[in-house]
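Entry 14. Structure prediction run on the chain below.
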Amino acid sequence: MPSIRKTLISVETLHATMGEALPKPIRRVVGLAVIANPFAGRYVADLSPLFQAGREIGERLMPELIAALGEPAVSYGKAALVGAHGEMEHGGACIHPMLGKPMRAAIGGGQAVIPSNVKLGAPGAIIDIPLGHKDDVWSFDHFDTITEMIADAPRADEIVVAIALADGGRAHPRCGSGPVR
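Output returned:
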């Protein structure tokens, strides 16, 4: 198991936007894990320990996210925020090779690529976690973003790994439902 300093589960329920009530509230949940970056401050060719860390974080956080969502997940996303002594590839190693499998297992599938984002940041930096429909990569109504932060993370030698789920798309989508040619 990666060295986890803290976790945070965030629940957001959207009831209205621009004064217009939603027919059904949209719930979005985010799980964040702050882990030590074993490669901070140095170049390492083999990042596979971070692959495993991503899988283990997914296995640990997904049951809490499923419970917090309370409805079947329709959209998903993932992200990483790497402290200043790390590199973007460290965040990519956490979220790309192995994190998707426990995410898909927990929600009962998912045919579409899981949208993702990685960036470097100081403590308190925000991370934008992209969301997309779990089965239909072209569902414009589900292209969304949820923003999170942890006031004291990431420290220079840490990585924040984020997983997000939603039970709906954007509020009152009006941009079309697929590619326009």
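The CA atoms of residues 54 and 126 lie 20 Å apart.
Filed with the rest of this week's runs.
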